[in-house]
Structure formats: structure tokens, C-alpha cells
């Protein structure tokens, strides 16, 4: 695909290729934004994030631990809930209880949750032995750091209001065609990198066809694209490929592999 689309490669001063995994194209329009979302939704997860030095994120680092190890007995199902304790909601996790609070932001010694997951007595340790679940040292450390950092219970991004970011200034104004380009270029410039030269139309068309359909572009479609000198030629080619049944077949392959 275009080297400023979903994934952009840039060359550093030593000539080695560095891959910048955020890219959005200077050609990116609403239709392609939807395409990017679909591609990301169909891609396999990259796995657990490293949290050894970064601030612990509740949704990324903590909630998966609670969901895998605690929700069965302290989750949304009242039929399996134990001790009338819910750890799947902020209200339940921070509610005052007869023996103290389950989570006390900033104070692990006063947090019953941390006391129970590190308890030496196996009869009192959580998760219980009968659950056949156990927390690794790394997971326990994540919980400790999360509580020490204030136990922020952030909402999932999909429930947060959308804020309009400030469009960054860039040095290479000539490269910019729309506001989205400014975000891409600003990130590159902050890393001391510059974009690759723009690929020719034939190369762009081939990349796009293989990305979206997994097939080479039909000659008639390629010829129409090469002869189209309008500013919207790239977007029109995207639309034609997305309207093709081959797009659906290509994307369905990943879902069928997962199934």
C-alpha cells in the first residue's frame, strides 16, 4: 500500500529501515479510515504489553488479570458471586467493607485485594486453590504498581468522549496535503526521520490490490487508474476494490482461520 498508509517505512541516517507502526496517509479520507479500522479489528492481538517501566494502564494491564482470575467469583453473575463482592465495577472494587476496603489507592498495605493475592496461607490466598488459577509474580507486581500509582480505574476508550487534538506544526510544510499528514510527519520529525519518496502509481496500485484483495490488480482496473489524473484517483481505486467480492473473501480468510 502507499508508503504513508496503514504502515509507513522510513529511512534513518544510517540507511537502515525503521518501521513506524502508526501511519495514516496523506491520501486518507473517511472511507479509508473505516478501512483501517476494519483491518485493525481483524488483526490478531500483539499480546500482552510490557509494563516493567511504563505506567500501569487499567484497561490494558489490570482488567485482564481481574477478568481471568477474579470475575468468576466476583463478577457480574449473581449466581456465582462470592462474599457479595464485585471486582468488575469501580463501585464494587472501591466500596467500603466490614474488614476494610478491597482497594485503597496508593496504599497496598491497606488494600485487601493485595493482601489476599500475596497471602502465605493457601486457605486465604486468592485466587483459591480450587479455582485452579494462580497469579504469576509479574501479574502480582502489576497489581502492586497499579495500586501504588493510585489505582486509576480508566474507562475503556470506546466509552470516553472524543477530544479534538491540536494539529501539530511541522517543518516540512510541502509534504503536507491534509491535517492527518501533520500528525504523521510530526512524529517522524520528532524522531529525526523523514518520509520515503512517494511510490509511482503502478506500485501504489499493486500494493493496494494485494493488501485489500490478496490478488494482482486486473489490467483494465490498473489502466483506468493510471489514466486517471484526478486528485481522487487513489480514493476511487480503493472504493472499487472495497466493492469487489474479492475484498470480502480476502478478509473472511482471517476470521475463518480464527474460527
UniProtKB/TrEMBL annotation:
InterPro entries: Cyt_c-like_dom_sf, Cyt_c_Planctomycete-type, DUF1549. Residues 70-128 form the Cytochrome C Planctomycete-type domain. Residues 180-259 form the DUF1549 domain. This is Cytochrome c domain-containing protein. GO terms for molecular function: electron transfer activity; heme binding.
Amino acid at each position: 500500500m502507499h508508503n504513508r498508509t496503514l504502515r509507513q517505512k522510513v529511512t534513518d541516517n544510517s540507511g537502515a529501515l525503521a518501521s513506524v507502526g502508526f501511519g495514516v496517509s496523506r491520501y486518507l479520507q473517511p472511507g479509508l479510515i473505516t478501512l483501517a479500522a476494519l483491518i485493525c479489528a481483524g488483526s490478531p492481538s500483539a499480546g500482552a504489553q510490557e509494563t516493567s517501566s511504563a505506567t500501569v494502564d487499567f484497561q490494558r494491564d489490570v482488567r485482564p488479570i481481574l477478568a481471568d482470575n477474579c470475575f468468576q467469583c466476583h463478577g457480574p453473575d449473581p449466581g456465582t458471586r462470592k462474599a457479595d463482592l464485585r471486582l468488575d465495577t469501580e463501585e464494587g472494587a472501591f466500596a467500603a467493607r466490614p474488614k476494610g476496603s478491597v482497594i485503597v489507592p496508593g496504599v497496598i498495605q491497606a488494600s485487601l485485594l493485595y493482601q489476599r493475592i500475596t497471602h502465605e496461607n493457601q486457605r486465604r490466598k486468592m485466587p483459591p486453590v480450587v479455582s485452579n488459577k494462580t497469579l504469576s509474580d509479574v501479574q502480582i507486581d502489576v497489581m502492586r504498581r497499579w495500586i501504588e500509582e493510585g489505582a486509576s480505574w480508566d474507562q475503556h476508550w470506546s466509552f470516553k468522549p472524543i477530544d479534538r487534538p491540536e494539529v501539530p506544526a511541522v517543518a516540512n510544510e510541502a509534504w503536507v496535503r491534509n491535517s492527518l499528514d501533520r500528525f504523521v510527519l510530526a512524529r517522524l520529525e520528532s524522531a529525526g526521520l523523514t518520509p520515503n519518496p512517494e511510490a509511482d502509481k503502478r506500485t501504489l496500485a499493486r500494493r493496494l490490490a494485494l493488501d485489500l484483495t490478496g490478488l494482482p490488480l486486473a489490467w483494465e482496473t490498473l489502466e483506468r487508474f493510471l489514466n486517471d489524473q484526478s486528485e481522487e484517483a487513489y480514493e476511487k481505486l480503493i472504493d472499487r476494490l472495497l466493492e469487489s467480492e474479492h475484498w470480502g473473501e480476502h478478509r473472511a480468510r482471517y476470521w475463518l482461520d480464527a474460527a
